[in-house]
Amino acid sequence: MYDVIIIGGGPAGMSAAIYTARARLKTLLIEKAGCGGQIAITDHLENYPGFEEGINGFELAVKMQKQAESFGTEIVYGEVLKIDTTTQTETQTSTQTAARTKKVILKNNKEYEAKTVIIASGANAKKSGVSGEKEFTGKGVSYCATCDGPFFKNKEIAVIGGGDSALQEALYLTKFASKVNLIHRRNEFRAAKILQEKVFKETKINIIYDSVVEEIAGNPLGSVESIKLKNVKNDAVLTLSVNGVFVFIGWQPNTEFLKNTKIKLNGNGYIVTDENMKTSVEGVFACGDVRQKILRQVVTACGDGAVAAISVEHYLENL
Questions:
Q1: Is 240 helix (H, G, I), strand (E, B) or coil?
Q2: Distance between CA 123 and CA 255 in Å, rounded?
Q3: Does residue 210 have an active-site annotation?
Q4: 29 with 68: CB under 8 angstroms?
Q5: What's phi and psi for 97, nearest 5 deg?
Q6: Confidence (pLDDT) at 282
Q7: Catalytic choice (148, 164, 289, 304)
Q8: E strand intervals along the chain
């Protein structure tokens, strides 16, 4: 029996683990793949406090994991299938709903029980849904510049998106590609001004405004060879020869495993919490990119994790 099970090993989950384990709560962190979440595949973080020259995302993730483990956090790897918040122990009565044991069940059939749960499962990159995207994923279509950028050395590529991630990754990809076509459906970017300034100065980046990708084409047994663009203002169609397409158009919360629970989600699938990270279910908290919020950054994820951990501590004290 754990005091708290944390689902997700990104910045939010690891920050929560640092706080709960340091408070001498028996802490289990469950991570699907490798700790770090999105930062583990981010080349350079410039806006995380304490690193005046920035820091590599994977390096920061390793430091966070080691810190969490140093306080006694136990880490297991596996994908969560569901959470059962209705389990009662032999010593509990039907009226003690707030104190009910939470059971976390993994896809490999392993089960873990705790008095509380913190959901920090994060979010994944959204798919564009255009023709050819699925067929060429892994054959030229990518959602991770750090992972796949080196495969496109001296090749022409396309980046789809207009937010911080799209511009940041487009800049990173100039280290490898001969030309980066940055395609955005609007006539101006939504990204931070400092990122826009860098993009405008970069000679390898070709900006294509007011356009959407309608099709990704190539050799099905080989790789991407071209994309078809449509101008949203005049309907003009353009075929652009590229060897790779990187999609950065937003995020999808990892909340599929919550569909049969009473944990409230908003219209986009994000978990609804109060300012103390409490969800609609007693003893279940959420933090980081998986919850409804206006800013999804490493620094806010860490703050969320700390708040969730303190809320867990107070909750357990009042049982």
A1: strand
A2: 8
A3: no
A4: yes
A5: -65, -35
A6: 95
A7: 148
A8: 2-7, 27-31, 74-77, 80-87, 101-106, 111-119, 123-125, 141-142, 156-160, 179-183, 205-208, 211-218, 224-231, 237-241, 244-247, 251-253, 284-286
Write the CA distances from 267 to 166, 270, 286, 292, integer angstroms.
24, 8, 17, 10
Q: Give the active site residue among 3, 35, 43, 147.
A: 147
Residues 6+ apart with CB under 8 A from 176: 149, 150, 151, 152, 153, 154, 155
Residue 226 tokens, joined: 């071209």
Beta bridge partners of 183: 160, 208
Report pLDDT for 95. Answer: 45
Catalytic status, residue 287: no
What radius of gyration, in Å, describes the C-alpha atoms of the chain? 22
Question: Amino acid identity, residue 256?
Answer: E
Q: Which residue has the tokens 């050819």?
A: 132
Q: Which residue stretches of the chain are H helix?
A: 11-22, 57-70, 133-136, 145-148, 164-173, 193-201, 298-317
Q: How confident is the model at residue 40 (pLDDT cuts 50, 70, 90)?
A: confident
Q: What are phi and psi of 179, to 5 degrees?
A: -155, 135
For the ranges 29-33, 83-87, 152-156, 205-209, the lowest mean pLDDT is seen at: 83-87
Do residues 299 and 12 lie in contact, with contact meaning Cβ atoms separated by under 8 Å?
A: no
Instruction: Tell me the pLDDT tens digit for each residue of 73-124.
Output: 999 999 999 999 886 654 455 444 446 799 999 999 999 999 999 999 999 8
Nearest Cα neighbor of 121 from 5, 23, 9, 218 is 9
SS3 196: helix
Q: Which residue has the tokens 């951990």?
A: 309
Q: What is the pLDDT of residue 88?
A: 60
When pLDDT is averaged across residues 27-36 and rounded to a whole number, the result is 94
Told to judge if 35 belongs to the known catalytic residues of this protein, a careful annotator would answer no
Q: What are phi and psi of 268, to 5 degrees?
A: -100, 5
